[in-house]
Amino acid sequence: MKLLLVEDDENLNRNLTYFLEKEGYQVDSCHNGEDALYYLREGSPDLILLDRMLPLLDGMEVLKKIRQEHNRTPVLMLTALGTLADKVDGLDAGADDYLVKPFAMEELLARIRSLFRRSGPTPSDSPGDFGETLTWHYGDLWLNPRLHELKGPAGTATVSNRESALLQYFLQNGGQTLSRGQLLIKVWGPDSEVEEGNLDNYIFFLRRRLKSLKSCLRIATLRGVGYRLEEGDSHAV
C-alpha cells in the first residue's frame, strides 16, 4: 500500500519514511504543498500523511484543493497545532483524522490501519506463524512484504522487492482489473522511466510463482486494458 508523506522537517520526513517502509508500506515523500499536489495528480497514493504548516502552500490549502477536485484519498493530518479549534478546522476542511506532534510511532501505525479499515482493503492476519505486522491475503495466497515471503498451498517462496510490491497491489485489488498505467505508477512510481516491457517480465515471474505454489489464483490478461488477479477458471487470457 502506498503512502504520500508531506512533511517539511527533513529529519522527521526521513525518519518517518524509513520507519514506514520497514513496516511494509511504499512511501513517496515531499516537503511542500506544491510538490504534494504534483504527486497526487501524477500518482495514486492510498493514504496521505499531511503536515499542516508547509512552505509554498500550507496543508489546509492542499487539503481544500484535493477535496475540491473530488479526490477522496484518506488524509491523516500530522501537526503541532493541537487545540480543539485546530482539530475542528482540519476535520471540517476534509481531513479524515488528526494526529498531534509529537506522537508515538505505534499510534501513527494504528491511525493508518484505522483509516484503511474505513476506506477499503486492509491487511489481514495470516494463518499459523506466518504473521507479521503487515500481511496481505487474497484467495489462497498470503504475502508478507516485510520478509518478502509469499505463502500458498504448496509452501512458501521468497520474492524480490519488485515482485513483492507488484503482488501486494494485486492482493489489495483482488478480482479488480488494473490498467498497465496503474501498475507502473503504483510499483515503479510516477517519475520512473521504466519501460512497459519490464512490467510484462514481472507478470511472467509472478505467474511462475503462483504455479510453483499451486495457487488457485492466476493473473489474467485483459487485452488492451491490463491485468486482473482472479480465480483460475476465468475465460480471460
How would you describe the overall organization of this protein?
The protein has two domains: 118 residues, Rossmann fold; 96 residues, Arc Repressor Mutant, subunit A. α2 runs parallel beside α3 and α6 crosses α7. The chain is elongated, with a radius of gyration of 19 Å. The chain is of the alpha/beta class and 237 residues long. The strands form three sheets. Strands 2-1-3-4-5 form a five-stranded parallel β-sheet, sandwiched between helices.
Strand line-up in the sheet with most strands: 2-1-3-4-5
Number of helices: 8
Q: Largest beta sheet, briefly?
A: 5 strands, parallel
Overall geometry comes to: elongated
Roughly how many Å is the radius of gyration?
A: 19 Å
- Give the class-level CATH name of the largest domain: Alpha Beta
- Averaged pLDDT: 83
Strand fraction equals 15-25%
What is the fold-level CATH name, i.e. the topology of the largest domain? Rossmann fold
SSE-based structural type: alpha/beta
Helicity level:
40-55%
